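Q: Please design a sequence for this.
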């Protein structure tokens, strides 16, 4: 099922959006029976409250959604979605121009409508039934098709991350890319198994060679003119940690370690659906970091496509290895902008938590363009530094680079610096995302999630000069 607004219906329930400081003034002009109903049900118009009002004194049924106060809304995203999740299944039509009710500008209304569609997401692949949800008729002032496209991209990302590794290994991830390419008339090339060595992609091969499913490099192309944008997504479909085996508690969420790949595919879907005038390339090194007799070892020194050697001090720092070869390949295509996305380090989570998408760039104008779009898109990001004095931390004595510097300090920064070594002169932006919502929130159920993609999509005209 794709996310979509409901068709116009004569049976839709009218939904009124109520700010907290408007409630009493509005109630004073209502029949006493309606005042009693609202009061008895404890509706105060707080953020996310919802109340279905039956037909009173012959009036048609309608619903109220609490919009709280400006202070309350700053503490959560998608206020309307919070109410939508509490309404009974049915079709609702938002009242947007009624005096005495909350009045939203088009940008805010669009974001709230997006939140409603995102709140309808259910990962039901393994369930026998799918719960019904409340549907919304798109207000006339919003671009319904554009909002549905954003929601479809997010649903794709969530589905990919939420699918267990038994059903989302490198081969299944390849199939998902092929399906997306077929939808938008893109082309896909894949280099698999030992062919990776012939193609000079040794790090991708080494990390994935111990798994039953062969490692692969997935390469999608779309568009024939305009600026060149290359997206690189970490596709570690499951991460045991390799011979530096993760403890069980740390392994439980490792189906999400391909969250970078899922996110760049969501962003690619937005771009292709909008028909942006660019040349898009998506590179996904898809592997499973498994344990077997031929798994790579701590202490190994590995060659890379760029010619730099890497000492392995922890086989659980494998994501930066597969990205390194993919980034080198991306740089060789002379792109105008390279963006990598990866569930790369726990250090990033310690720094900013699960909700913010930390990103790195050397270009202040790019950071400003992204920051400008993040809040309107309800897609928060936070800039982190490519701190050059830490370069020495990733330089061991035995090889050119160290994949896991000792000491535990600045883990996200040193990982980003490691990746930057493989990009060359290309303009580069890196996202160290979590890709997971640990606790359900409005429009964001517990599970896989997109991070930074809507902000990036909105910023692309500035980033690429469109």
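A: Design:
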């Amino acid at each position: 099922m794709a996310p979509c607004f409901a068709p116009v219906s004569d049976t839709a329930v009218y939904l009124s959006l109520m700010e907290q400081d408007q409630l009493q003034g509005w109630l004073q002009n209502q029949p006493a029976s309606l005042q009693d109903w609202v009061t008895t049900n404890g509706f105060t118009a707080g953020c996310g409250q919802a109340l279905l009002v039956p037909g009173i004194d012959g009036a048609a049924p309608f619903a109220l959604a609490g919009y709280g106060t400006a202070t309350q809304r700053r503490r959560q995203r998608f206020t309307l979605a919070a109410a939508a999740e509490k309404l009974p299944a049915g079709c609702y039509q938002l009242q947007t121009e009624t005096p005495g009710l909350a009045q939203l500008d088009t940008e805010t209304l669009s974001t709230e409508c997006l939140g409603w569609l995102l709140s309808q997401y259910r990962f039901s692949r393994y369930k026998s039934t799918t719960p019904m949800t409340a549907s919304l008729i798109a207000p006339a002032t919003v671009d319904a098709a554009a909002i549905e496209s954003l929601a479809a991209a997010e649903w794709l990302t969530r589905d990919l991350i939420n699918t267990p590794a038994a059903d989302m290994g490198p081969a299944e991830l390849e199939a998902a890319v092929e399906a997306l390419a077929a939808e938008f008339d893109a082309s896909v090339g894949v280099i698999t198994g030992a062919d990776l060595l012939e193609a000079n992609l040794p790090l991708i091969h080494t990390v994935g060679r111990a798994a039953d499913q062969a490692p692969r490099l997935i390469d999608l192309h779309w568009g024939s003119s305009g600026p060149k944008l290359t997206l690189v997504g970490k596709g570690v479909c499951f991460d045991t940690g390799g011979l530096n085996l993760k403890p069980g508690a740390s392994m439980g969420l490792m189906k999400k370690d391909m969250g970078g790949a899922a996110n760049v595919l969501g962003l690619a879907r937005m771009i292709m659906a909008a028909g942006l005038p660019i040349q898009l390339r998506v590179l996904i090194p898809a592997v499973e970091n498994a344990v077997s007799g031929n798994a790579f070892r701590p202490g190994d020194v590995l060659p890379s496509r760029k010619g730099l050697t890497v000492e392995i001090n922890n086989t659980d720092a494998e994501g930066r290895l597969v990205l390194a070869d993919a980034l080198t390949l991306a740089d060789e295509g002379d792109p105008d902008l390279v963006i990598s996305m990866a569930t790369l380090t726990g250090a990033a989570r310690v720094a900013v938590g699960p909700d913010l998408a930390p990103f790195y760039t050397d270009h202040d104008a790019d950071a400003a363009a992204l920051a400008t779009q993040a809040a309107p898109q309800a897609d928060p990001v936070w800039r982190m530094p490519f701190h050059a004095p830490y370069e020495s931390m990733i330089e061991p004595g035995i090889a050119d680079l160290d994949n896991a510097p000792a000491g535990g300090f600045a883990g996200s920064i040193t990982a980003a610096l490691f990746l930057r070594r493989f990009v060359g002169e290309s303009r580069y932006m890196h996202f160290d995302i979590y890709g997971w919502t640990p606790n359900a929130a409005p429009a964001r159920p517990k599970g896989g999630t997109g991070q930074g993609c809507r902000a990036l999509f909105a910023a692309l005209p500035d980033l690429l000069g469109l």
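Q: Thanks. Anything notable?
A: The chain has two domains: 13-142, 147-464. The chain has a mean pLDDT of 95.
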